[in-house]
Structure formats: structure tokens, C-alpha cells
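Open question from group meeting: does this chain pack into something compact, or does most of it stay loose? Before anyone orders reagents, we agreed to write out a predicted structure and look at it together. Recording both the input and the output here so the notebook holds the full record.
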Amino acid sequence: MSDIKQVPEQSRGEQPTAGTRQDTSTHHQTAEPGPLDAAEQDGATPTPASLPQRARIWRRRTLIVSLRVGRLLRLGLARLLPGLRFVGRSLHRRWRRSLQFRTILTTLLLSVTSFAVVGAYLSNQIAHNLFEERLVQAETETRYNVKQVQDTFNGAQVTDQSSVITLVYDTLTAVEGRGSVIQRRYVFEAVPDQTKPRNRWVESRASDQLTVSVIPDDLRKAVQESGKNQFWASTVIPVGTEDHPGIAVGNKVTFNGTLYELYLIYDLNTAQRTLDQIQGVLWAAFAVLVFIIGGIAWYVTRNVVSPVSHAALVSEKLAAGQLQERMVVKGEDEMARLGASFNHMAASLQEQITQLATLSAMQQRFVSDVSHELRTPLTTVRMAAEVLFDARDDFDPINKRSAELLYYQVERFQSLLADLLEISRFDAGVAMLDAESEDIVNVVQHVVDGAAPVAVQYGSAITVNAPADGIVVEMDARRIDRILRNLVLNAVEHSEGKPVSITLAATDSVVSISVRDYGIGMNPGDAARVFDRFWRADPARARTTGGSGLGLSIATEDTKLHGGWLQAWGAKGVGSNFLLTLPLKKGDSVDTPALALDPYSLAMPPMTGSVPMLTLEASPRPRASESTGETSPGLGEKP
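C-alpha cells returned:
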């Protein structure tokens, strides 16, 4: 038989009608005096016409209360949800950033899950064993007591009503009371719809407050339809104001030719209290074990994670330049050896960095000192070269050629010396930015005007596209002029007589200048190294414009002073593109350029309102440097 729960017993009295309930509700509503209840307060009976008015008033009051409660709930949720989100974000951040927190929380979750599974299994097993034990005892005692009752009924020699009632009462009372372990009660009920003559003097008997309703219907049906078999079912026994779990065991007995259902009901409340106590002890033990395991996990992970956290902190300080930081080493275990190795590595790095810094400082000072010392003799040599160059027409061809070579190489040497001095200032960190608000379009115009003779010499056309109303930028115009001059002259030199395009565009925060040529181009690997000092993609290629090899390096440093970007793109046989991006205001950061670096993978933004500023058209013709070996001084370098 399956366990059956008791259905709450219905009231045996007459059920109130809908009208009765409405009258009761109305009575409760009118208990609180209102503006229209003066007649009731004076003892007058409310008229039917006043009932709809009071109903409307109470509906309005209910609506007001509902709105206030809803407002309070919304306010509470509005204050609770941000707090929950903050706690969730804090826990998530802690989970991502703390190995100790993640380990402890994982250990606790696994422990709680394991204890819950084990606790549920143990509780279920204990409950099952207790129930089985009580069930076996109940079945055994019931067989014995039912046999005694049947024997008593079979041997009874009573014929009058009083004797029959007394015999039944005494016999059933004898089986009631405490059994060997559990409390026992009975329900004695005549089997309904019997065809044989029945004993009408005894229809039913039950212990205390019990009625036949405590017996499950399935159990009664099984007992009624059986012969000598015994059946049982779980039930609920009302004891005072409480309900106790119980077992009902049913049999059939015969008395004076009448069949009766005899149910012995066993109270399992004692077993339930025992089970509750065992479960309480189990969960208390599990809570203590979880707390102990959490403490152990915290202690163990702290001993393991603390040195790692300390190593991470020391590493951050070393990366920040605090080379004297070291780890605290205690003991001789693995963490101690790790700390010792880390300190040895830090000491070695400090020594090497110190040596490199000293060597770099010596090199910078050497370059600066040599550059300054060379300025005086170079000035003298240049003056002598100018004298010879001016008088070259009076020389024979060989001496004339020598005077020209001397003049141009001295000019190139002077440009290289100026670049070295500028690089030394960058390395020493003494380069200063003299920023003023100026129109960068005017700077580009000045650069193009200066590059015009070289462009004509190489047969390249320079086209500038920029907004007609200009672009005002807080910048150091001298340094921006130097950057653009290097980029434009490099583009002209490597364009192989093809056009050079300069494009300007601006957003709300940045301005971008693209210098695009369609010449020999360069590989993507070359574009990554083009800003290195003295680096050339093709060392065998002859210099035609005589650059120092430091032009793009100086341009990079000038760009960094402005807080901008200088990027390069190239493809062999397609050309190159250099993109300079600067913030419109000094100190702002650069996030996204206003132009695309790769003109093929990204489309250039439309130049709204732009006009061509300058177009130089020139026919290709032999360059003077190819026929005479002359070079133009002071031009930037490009591979």
C-alpha cells in the first residue's frame, strides 16, 4: 500500500451559503466606522441603498493601500537590486583576481554538495530503517492482538444488548494502550452492505478522538475485499491540536455472525522525533565540518598563495623600476627556494639593467660630446669647402669635381651631426614641446613648397587634399614641419616619378595626415622596422638624396612628444603610405585615426568640403644627382 496523507476534515455543520458569506463580509466591513456609518453607530440598521456607497468607499481604500504597497515594493527593489549587482560584481572580480578566494569557495561548494548528498542518503536510510522496524513490530503485534480478539468473540456467550456492548468494549480496550515500543489505538467498524443478519447493537467503536475517517480509503477497500489477509497503510493521527504520523494495520473479525473491520493504529511520533534529532545532529555536524574544512582550506591556501602574491607584488615593483625590491625568504621548502631563485634573478636583472643604463648613458654622453666637439672643426671645414666650391669654375675638371663632392659631403655631414644632436636630446629626455594653436594646413603648404624643387627634379606630382576651412591643432609647428618634410621627401624619392598624395582629415579629437606614394613600396616586415635608426630595407641601394638615416627616428620621437601615432604601410610594387595622427588639443589621447592606414583593407573617409591645395606636374627628366653625383642635403631617410 502506498503512503496516504490525511485530507483535512470538513465541517460537519451546515455550510454557509453565498449570501451568508456576503453578509458576514459586510458585517466585518461595517465594523470600522466611516463617514456614512453614523446610522449604524446610533444602532440603526443600514439601509440597502447605503451598501453600494460603502462598497465603493472600501474599494477605493483597498486601491489606495494596494498602490502604497506597490510603491514601497518598487522602492525596495530599486534600492535592493543595485546592492545585489554591486555584491555580484565584487564577488565576480574577487573570483577572477584571487586564487585563494577561488580555491576556498570551490572547496566549500564541493564540501557542502558532498555533505548534502551524504546527509540526504543517511537521513533517508535512517528513516527507512526506523519505519521498517516499527512496521514489523506493528504487524507482529497486530496479528497477536487480532487473534486474541477473535478468540474472545468466538468464545463469548452473550445474547442481550448490554452484555454485547460490555464485551466489545472490554475486548477492544484490552488491545488499546502502549505496545512493546509504540503507542497503539483502534478503530472498530462494521463492514457495510452485509447480506447476513447483522448485530445492530454494535456498529462502530474507536479510541479517544479517532474516527473511521483516519483510515485511508484504499486500506478500507483492501480489508473489505480480503479474507483473512492483513493490510497496512501510512496515515495521520490527530492528537490534540497536532497531527502525528502513524501506521494503520487492518484485519477482519467476526462477532455474532457480523463482519467487522478492526484497525490497530500505531503512533510513530516518537520515531519521528528520534529521526528529527538524528537529522539535526547530522546537519549540525556537517555545518561544523564545513566550517573546519573552510578554515583548513584558508590556512593551506594562505601558506601557498601568500608567497606567490608577494612574488607578484615584488615583480610589479621591479617592472616599475624599483630594482632594489626583494622577496622575504623563510625556511627551506619549495617556496623558500622559489623566493631565493627569484631574488637571484632580480639581482642579476638589476645588475644587467644598471650596466646597460650606465653604458647607454655613456653612449649618449659620448654622442653628445662628440657632436658638440665636431661642430667647430666642421664649421671651419665647411667654410673652406664653400670657398673652393665658389671658385670651382677656375679649376680644371678633376679639381672642380673634387670641390663639388667636398661641398655636398660636408653639407651631408653637417645634417648628420644636427640629427645626432637632436637624437641625443631625445635620449637624454630634455626635448621640450613648444605647443601653440596653429593651422596644420599651413604647415603642410609650407612643406610642399619646400619639396617642390625636389618633386620637379624627380618628375613627381604632389597633390594635397584638405578641408577648405583649415584644421587648428595645438602643436609645435617646427617639429611637425620636420616630420612632414621627412615623409614627403621620402615619398618623392621612392615614388619613381609617380604621383604623391597628401590627405588631411579630422574628427572631433584627432587629425590625421596621410602621405601616399605609388613607387617601389616595401614589405610588411620592412614597415615594422622603418622607424629604426640607420635601418635600410635594401643596404645595397644607393642614396640619392643623401639623408642621415635618422629622419624617421626623429619623426617618431617628435610624434611621441605630441602624444600621437606615426604608422607605416607598404606593399612591393604598389607603394607606401605613412599616416601621422595627432590630438587636436595638447595632452589628449589618440584612440582612432581619422584616416585608414591600409588604403585597400579600409576605405578612406570622404573628404567633405576638401579642395586640392597644390598640384605640381613635372615631366620626368634626368636628375642632376645622376649626371653630376650631386645630392641635396638634409633630407629624411627611408628604406
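Observations to bring back to the group:
The two ends are 95 Å apart (CA to CA).
The mean pLDDT is 77.
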